[in-house]
Amino acid sequence: MDPTTGRVQIRWVGENLVIRPGGPEVDVLYETSLISEVGQAMYELAQQNPGKHLVVNLDAVRYASTEMLAKLVSLRSRVERAGGRLTLCGLQPDVRESMRLLRLLPLFDVTEDLNAALGGADPQLWTSTAEHPKIE
User: Fold this and answer.
1) CATH code for residues 4-117
2) Least CB-packed of 10, 26, 84, 86 within 10 Å?
3) How far from each other are the two terminal CA atoms of the chain, in whole angstroms?
């Protein structure tokens, strides 16, 4: 079973914490309350899991507002200050283009898909959440 915080799916693959905004209403991250919910969930996970590799899988997000992109920049800073690493994967064309136009792509480790973000680890081999109780 994968833990879910509102509209954010959370899973562990080995020592990699995978965060995936998902659901039909999340494919467009423009609404302030939705952005706030997704951002808060990501911030809390980063704070609860310092020094870990966080992977934000955006494969279900077709569009993201500049407010959402700013949340990702802030998340990157928080993760790095705590000694961790942040990777974005699965960027849809419009999200990637927005990040390129805003010159944000060089700030992030960006991979094409979840498999690449996990360094070749099989994303189907989810680790039990019992091994990582901070996200239960």
Assistant:
1) 3.30.750.24
2) 84
3) 11
